[in-house]
Request: fold
Amino acid sequence: MTVTIYHNPSCGTSRNTLAMIRQSGAEPVVIEYLKTPPTRERLKELVAEMGISVRALLREKGTPYRELRLEDPNWTDDQLLDFMMAHPILINRPIVATPKGARVCRPSEAVIDLLDKPVGRFVKEDGEVVEPR
Reply:
């Protein structure tokens, strides 16, 4: 099974998600999306696979969201995608895609249902314990 993670190594949630994937025995394709952003078409595909709106993929914290006035509901999906292409930091993270689906894995344990093998007991960087289901 191919597992792809759109990863930001400076994000704890993204690091925890990547570690859970590896703990399950999978070695994912790791795309550092700030260095290699997904194409506009791939971003549209991911939004469709996740079953969310383009707006739901926007990240506010630590981004130019407010300065760009992206809270304005009049921005179209195409315009929001333009902003994400110009400022990849606006793309929420981490996004994980597998044959079982795709999702923004916040919290990081949201990745578990996308994996073939169980993760087992996992301790996040902050000490929080995720018990196997």
Q: What stands out?
A: The chain has one domain: 4-118.
